[in-house]
Amino acid sequence: MSTRNRNPLNTVGQLAFAIALVLVCLFLFSSVKSFVDIRLWQRDAVSSQVTLLNSVARIESGQRELATVLSNVGSELTAAARDSLVAQLDGLASELSGVLSTAFHPLIEKTASPVPGTENGKEAEGLLPLLGQLESAATPLAASLEQVTLKLQMGDPVSIGTLNNELSALATPLNAFRDGLRQHNVALNAAIVDSNTLMTSRLLAAAAALAAGGLLAIAPALVFVQRKRNALRVLQTSNSQLVDKVEEAEHRVSILSHHARHDGLTNLLNRSGFNDVLEGLLEEGKGRHGLCFIDLDLFKIVNDTSGHAAGDHLLKRVAGVLKSHLPKRGHAIRLGGDEFLILAPYTTDERFKELVQSCLEELNPLRIEYDGQNFEVTASFGATYFDATEHTSDTVMSIVDAACYEAKNAGGGRVQFHSGKEGAVEDRKTDMMWVAKIRESLENKRMQLHYQNIVEAKAQGDTVHSMEILVRMLDDNGKIQSPGMFLDIAERFSLAPRIDKFVIENTFKWLRQGQLGAQNDCLVNINLSGRSIGDAEVLSFIESISGKYNTPSSRVCLEITETAAVGKNARDFLIQLHDMGFKLALDDFGSGFSSFGYLESLPVDYIKIDGMFVRDLETNHAHREFIRAIDRVGKAMGKLTVAEFVENQASLDLLEEMGVDFAQGYHIHKPQELVKSTLMSDFSDFKFAA
Description:
Elements lengths: L7 H66 L5 H34 L14 H28 L5 H102 L9 H14 L3 E10 L1 H8 L1 H18 L5 E6 L2 E6 L4 H15 L2 E5 L2 E15 L5 H17 L5 E4 L5 H20 L3 E10 L6 E12 L5 E2 L1 H10 L3 H17 L10 E5 L8 H13 L7 E6 H4 L2 H12 L3 E7 L6 H4 L6 E4 L11 H16 L3 E4 L5 H10 L3 E2 L8 E2 L5 H4 L4 E2 L2
Parallel strand pairs: 5-6, 8-10, 8-17, 10-11, 11-12, 12-13, 13-14, 14-15
Antiparallel strand pairs: 1-3, 1-5, 2-3, 4-5, 7-8, 7-15, 7-16, 8-9
């Protein structure tokens, strides 16, 4: 963790300020202490002076009263005079012995102490000799007074004259001490004035020190405040910039959040946004809702024929149609590709049915014009009403997906409603089960390669021209699963390209092992699924695996269906394969939508006539003419023809008569496992075509 570099000048300044502040504090403390000491001295000095003066006044008063009593006594003491004299003597003795001995010394010491911090006030030291004289006179007097008092109390005779003499002897030092006290009082007052002056100066010094300390304290404080103000301005500016950045970030987050939940092309909710809305409805567990799955029919032809821009234009048109029919609380969703959803929360069955019907009518057909070309597409709808308490998101999607699939299989351009209780969920579960089986079979290599011979028709099946590689899947018990049970699902759930790769790699590996022996002119036909056509990754895989196993491309014929071959991207894909040296065959020709004119632009070598025209060749005159037309057009374009599903000798004879080049079917050869069969013995009855 790094620390910020400190400025040395700032450090020195802070140290100087700290030292100055400590000195000011010490001086301030000294001044305040002096002020307090002077105040205490004044209090003690004045208090002592008052006490001394009061004591002297009481002694003088007792002396006068005693003299008065003595003057009235005469030579003999009466009982009353005796009691009065005892009282006066006792009081005077107490004052002399108590106050003089116990109070005067400490009071004189306090009074004689100088003003703190000065030499003033030492004049009180002159009282000490006077106090000594007073004590010298007062001590015997006090003793005499005690004796006289004792004698008087005992009734013994007392010499009044002696008592008078001792009392008179006390007067002189007492008067001197009193005069000394008065002089000391004058000096004390002067000392108090000086102490007040000193105290004032100390207070002023303390105030000055406090002010200086304040200046020392406030100067850095002012600098600090100014710096803080500057820092505050910088902070306010930074804060303002930060607020702007936060607002900008919030705006970006809002945009990103919108993009995360919405389709970039149509601005409809995407799959993630739809899942959030649907899960929210299901969690509430209230009401009845409607959901409709929409799949465009033949969208791939538009997309491939005129490019993605035309396809995007079509998708935007569809999105606009859906949004225009939505109820206030409804949602239109683009799941991806050409798949859409309509979600109508808290609706009645009738209102939802009207919504679906209105969208269906506007989309069937939907005519668009783009870049000078006119297109007409339809859409298949699968819809359901569902109660939030009876379904999960998976079951609801399974229902509408299955319903849409039924609508599409029925010819498209229509809607299929499901209640959710008609087996749609079970059908979806079955599909998912097959998806899991296909994946497991691919991972555990439970796929098998079989083959079926394709022969020359004119040789009545005696000459093998090529073999078509077929794929089979094994279940957990090793039983072969018919391709019709899993290939369609593999195509629908995008697993077909993985199967294609499995077939291609294992066929190329088998060819490298030279299982055909000397018959190197026999072609090997491999089917490519519709999802592999136009896929650059599949194209790269074929090129890579061909190089890996050193496969002669001239011995491989790749078959693609007619519907998959239609489109600009597919044509480019086929051209690249043809340029690599592979033969190409257009499979199931006649079942799709291609015209003979479009056929001319495809770089295919073979036309495989769909089996639907071959099966009833003996009885269906129209089919015979159609096959004859395909054969003639094909030959005119330099392409060879192959008839599939030849199931009897009569069909083979007719095909030979019509001039079809090759034939394939159960009548000629039933599929066999590729690896287990000994191909040379299998082909022992055939002659391979050159």
